[in-house]
Amino acid sequence: MHFCYKLITYFLYPLLPIYLYFRKLNGKEDSVSIKEKLCIINASRNEGFLIWFHVASVGEAMSILPLINNFIDEKKINKILITSITLSSGKILKKKFQNSQKVTHQFLPFDVPILTNKFLKFWKPNLSVFIDSEIWPNLIFQTSKRKIPLLLLNARITKKSYNKWKFLKNFSNKIFGKFDLCIASNKDSETFLKTLGAKNIKNFGNLKFSNVKTSINNKFDSTFLEKIKKRKIWCAASTHSNEEVLCAQSHMIIKKTCDNVLTVIIPRHINRVEKINMELKKLNLKVILSNELNKLDSNTDIILVNSYGETLNFYNISKCVFLGKSLIESLKLDSGQNPIEPAALGCTVFHGPNISNFAEIYKYLNELGATRSVANAEELGQSVVEEFKRDKVMSPQIMEKIEKYGQNIFNNVIMELKKYI
Prior knowledge:
By secondary structure, the chain is α/β, with parallel strands linked by helices.
């Protein structure tokens, strides 16, 4: 099976520049990401111990920030390489570590042997750490062949992906058997990893809990903060197609009781903002974009966020948060978004019935009273109204429990990683 996979990647190799060109036209690539995905490297490796982290997108990138900050101070580590796939994750990581000489970001090249071999030959990592569910067979086999320790951290195997891997059992056993250590993010993933051939498996909980101390980089100026002082604010984040309209309908329900309501909508993919804006305006709602907050007035209904990296700022001014990818029935097998950040910041988290990707986290937070399920736009609107009527914010004891839980996970993960340094 591996031979067939390699053959397919070689066959597709000549088409990759064309594929990237069309992605660039759609705003999903830029000139830097195109070069790096074709393994045209414009960086220096330098001497010493290099630890390599690979993430897919923004969520995984944010989850490893505490680890990166810890390893920046680790004298045994000379270089930290972070690779990612999405343009948004690259922008956030480069901005986050632009002043660090120790940390370098690069986009991961395509999983074609000629490219992955060139990548590994240049960077020569001493330790490789793949995050979440990032499984690239050619890269994994070549990393293992070079006897570079290979770790899978915060491993998340959904039922949907497990069924796919199970169909290729011999192939999956060879791939997952290459990992020296797999740290699962939940019990289901731990069970799936065992079946798929992973050997050394540990489970401390979801690493994303360890990022609850994220500092708020509040860029809101005093004029904006003065304008919203008497507004009742809630946020709908990581929304997918159709959920923005549902949240706008909830806004209209809330407005019947709270005429000073202000709704913030943060789409999962900001390239959809123009389309969303048109849909919302058809409902006769006054919408402004997050890069024009100076236009906000008492008649503004919705702030539509059109840039990455602002989510925590908006969580910080919101009483409650709805998390998307949870009201869409067609995504039931791959549903839900991570509720840790808003809960850790003291926001009550609302979500739809479909949360399969983060069921264990929601269960834990629900037991603390930090989350609530809603079935539709009307129920969401009524729930937000009830939350506004409550003057009390989330109990500091709940926030402290979340923080301690995350710190314990972080300490255990760091202890395991340092065994390989």
